[in-house]
User: Fold this.
Amino acid sequence: MKTIDVCLSPELMHLYDVRNRTVVVVDILRATSTMVTALAHGAESITPFAKAEECLEMKYRGYITSGERDGKKIEGFSKGNSPFEYMDDQVRGMKIAFTTTNGTQAIEKSKEAKEVLIGSFLNLSTVVKYLLLGENNVLLVCAGWKGRVNLEDTLFAGAVVEKLKDYLGPDCDAPLAARHLYNQAKGNMIAFLSESSHVKRLNRLNIHRDFEFCLTPDQYKVLPKLKNGVLVI
Ligand code: 3SL
Assistant:
């Protein structure tokens, strides 16, 4: 039986040998939700950067520069990190250089993996189907917040573990904990997350609709994959 594990924070990545695994990076609020949205709406590619300065340089190479620090658009960048900035034709055919506080850092730490995918509630069923049919053991990497665990990424991990429980065995207790949490929350995830740290942060920025959208399952069927350092579908 293939196995599935959950890395609850990128700070725990040193515990995992990812070279033979399929890694799914998840940052529900909001980086991976926004990446899925942009590629579903026709963006050509997303190049993730850990460092904002390196990302900004890409504007001289014809890229849209996107991202945030602490939830706010970075000075000099074209776009922030709201999925609503990447819908319809706003990024169709464009190459995006992207940097975020946690999401792109988690991608950077996952680069050694056999393959790196981008997961969110927005493409949940597509992720699950791919992992079910794939050959590799799986690691779900939760981006968290500055090294700390967060609820929303853990809930997504729990949803994936729950849906694959008859096919992929848990590698340790983190997938079990995530699954139990998801089963408690799934009736009303918005209410369940109302006291979570990042929801409070986003509410302060007045972007409650981003929060609700990012928790909506199966809006898109795309599955972004990292190829030579670039996310494409
Ligand atoms: O940390 C990240 O990668 C972001 O998704 C955080 S925020 O939702 O833009 O605040």
The longest helix spans residues 151-163.
